[in-house]
Amino acid sequence: MCRAVKTRSAALKLLRPHQWVKNTFVFVGLLFGHAWGDAALLTASVCAFAAFCALSSAVYVVNDWIDREQDRAHPVKCRRPLASGQVGGLAAAFLAVGCLALGLGLAAYVGTPLVLIALAYLALNLVYNLGAKHVVLLDVFIIAAGFMLRILAGTLGVGLSPSHWLLLCGFSLTLFLGFAKRRAELTALRGRDAASHRRVLSHYSPAMLDKMIAVVISAVVVTYSLYTVSPETIALHGTHNLIYTVPFVLYGLFRYVFLLHRREGGGDPAVELLRDRHLQMAVLGWLAVTVVMLS
């Protein structure tokens, strides 16, 4: 009985449900498209979110299977279910296929555009695992593209038109998270052979990544600020006051950089958001002010 419980717990851990917080990018279109009062769009967005939760879990299972040998040499990732032997290959295969079927089924329920975006997400991850993850810069751009597909799933995938400014802001934000992830990996593997864990790390340095992070943070602030004051946004939402959400964005970004440099965090945005109260307050404050301004 105890062994069965441990096996189920390890299987659930393999699916990484805490990472589903990343799929909340799907709801950006619903929020900024003033569509939360439309029952059909709300249902479609929730289904899109659930579809990406299932698909991302399938991808995590496959990634962990491919990376299991490298993970065993990592100080933290060695505890992952496949790397530690808590879950076998056959069980992992069943989990991946089940999540894949569920995700594509939910996407098909919503409509063809979401199916195409879901397939693009799977193809992108296939390209990443077949070798793109070893190509400097391209690896981070592919990670960012995965986040962008989540935003498109919650906009084009459910019949909403995305704002160009929000797309630019979202892309800049996800590049920031990608470069921060690489920076955190270098820090975590300090004193070890980083390239033996992830080959592409041999091409990065902390100084280089700090410069890239500074550039993309600036892009996030500029594009989001321009979105809040653009005539198109003001006309759509009927308010000039979205500019008051910018301080929350700035605080969240600066807090993340602080965690990256002083707390040896930043490697996993989902984990940081779930455990850091300052990040939680920044996100909740941004969300609350945004909802009030758009209501």
Percentage of β-strand residues: under 5%
Distance N terminus to C terminus?
Answer: 51 Å
Number of strands: 0
Structural class: mainly alpha
What percent of residues adopt helix (DSSP H or I)?
over 70%
Query: Taking Cα atoms only, what radius of gyration do you get, to the nearest Å?
Result: 19 Å
- CATH topology of the largest domain, anyone? Tetracycline Repressor, domain 2
CATH 4th-level superfamily of the largest domain: UbiA prenyltransferase
Largest β-sheet summary: none
Output mean pLDDT. 85
Low-pLDDT residue spans:
none
- CATH C-level of the largest domain: Mainly Alpha
Question: What overall geometry do the principal axes of the alpha carbons give?
Answer: globular
In sequence order, what are the helices and strands, one letter per element?
HHHHHHHHHHHHHHH
How many structural domains? 2
Query: What's the CATH architecture name of the largest domain?
Result: Orthogonal Bundle
* Number of separate helices: 15
Describe this structure in words.
The radius of gyration is 19 Å and the shape is globular. The N and C termini lie far apart (51 Å). It is an all-alpha fold and 295 residues long. Helix 3 runs antiparallel to helix 6, helix 11 (206-229) runs antiparallel to helix 13 (246-262) and helix 13 (246-262) packs antiparallel against helix 15. It has helices at residues 2-15, 28-32, 39-66, 68-72, 81-84, 89-110, 112-129, 138-153, 164-188, 194-197, 206-229, 231-237, 246-262, 269-275, 277-294. The protein folds into 2 domains: 1-162, Tetracycline Repressor, domain 2 (Orthogonal Bundle); 164-295. It contains 15 helices and no strands.
